[in-house]
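Page 37, top half.
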Amino acid sequence: MDINALFTDEGLRAFTATVRDQHVRDAQQYGQIADIVRSRLQQTPIDGDRWMAKRLRAWKVARQLKAMEKASTEAAAKAEALYATYVNEVLELPQRRAVAEAKRLERKQGRQAAVGAAVAGSLNRTVTALNTPQEQPGGTVPQARPAEFVAPDNPWQQWPMAAGGERPTSTINDYFPKGEGK
C-alpha cells in the first residue's frame, strides 16, 4: 500500500471502501456462524447437563460471535466516518475558510458603511442647522446659555476654598458680560 495515496481523495476513498466492505462481509459471516453454533450447541447434550444447560452454554458461546459481529459492523461504520472526517477537516477546510473570510469582510464593510452613513447624516444635520437663519428679534445678541446659569457674582465665594486658599486668576464671569442694570 502506498502511504502517499492515502493523502488524496481517491486514495483514501478506495482504502476506506475496501476496509468497509471487508468488515461488512466479516460481520455477516460472524452472524451466520453465531446462528449455526447456537443451534448446534442447543441440540447437542453433554453428559451431566441439567435442564436449560444446553441453551445457556449455546448462548454463552454464540454471544462471543455476536460481539465479533457487532465489532465488525462498528469498524465498517468507522471506516466511513474516517473518510467523512477527512473530507470535512482536510479537503473542504480551505473553501470553508474562504467563505467565512468573505462573510467577515462583508460584515465589516457593512459596519463601515453604516458608520459612514451615520457620520454623513450628522454632518448634514449640523450644516443645515448652521446655515438656516434663526428667527431672532433685531439688535439682540444670542446668549450661549440661558441667563439663569450665568451668575453675576463670583461663584468661588459660595464654596469654601481648598487648603492653601489660592484663588483662580479668572472666573467664568470674565468670559460673559455682566447682567444689564446691575
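Page 37, bottom half:
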Amino acid sequence: MLPRIFRSAALSAVLAVTVSACGVGDEDAGVRAGEVCGRFARTPAVASALAKLAGTERFNEDLSEPKEAVATLRAADGKFSGYDDLVDVPECLLRAPEGGDPLVTLYFREALVVLKPQPEYFKDYTYYRTGASAASLHRVVSIYFHCRMTKPKKSLIINARLERESKVKLSGKSEVDTQMLVANTAALKMARQLGCQGTDLSQSPPQAVSGLYGPH
C-alpha cells in the first residue's frame, strides 16, 4: 500500500486531470448566448430566445463585424453610389463553437425608405409594433427605425435584419415572435450605441398587430 503522502499526491493528480478535461469539454466551448455581440441578449428571456433560434446556448462570434457596422452607419449620408453601398454589415454573426455555417446573423444598414406593411404579404408576414415598420416571417426579420443622431448631427433610416440559417425546425407564431424579440433587442442596442433619438423601438417584447399571426 502507498504511504499516505503518495496516495494524496496521486489523488490530486487524478482530480487535476479530471478538472482539466472538463474545462476543455464541449459544454464549456464557445461564448454563452447572454455574452455574445456586446451582451445584447444579456437578459434571460432574450438569451433563451437566441438559443432557441440557433439550437445551441454557446457560439463562435469571430466573424461578427460590430465596429464596422457602427462606423458604416455613422458615415451614412443617404446617398447610394453603387452595389457596395447596399451590402449589409454582419454586426453579429453567430456560428457553432467549432465554427461552420452561420446559425443566426444580425445585419444593419442604412435605408432610403421605410417599407410599410403590404396587405398582399399578410399571408406570409407578421407585422409588429416597433420602430417605423417591422415584420417577421419564416427565418427572417426586418425592422426599420428612424435615428436622429447628434454625433454626427443627422437623421437616417436604419434597417435591422435577422436571418436564421440553423437547422432547428421552428414554425408558427412562436417562431416569428422569438425572432422579433431577438432582432428588436439587437436594434435597441445599436440605437444606444449611435445615440439615436426618435426610434420608436419597443422597450418590451414587440406585439403583433397585423398579418399572418396578427389580431383577427
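Margin note: Confidence is low (pLDDT under 50) at residues 1-25.
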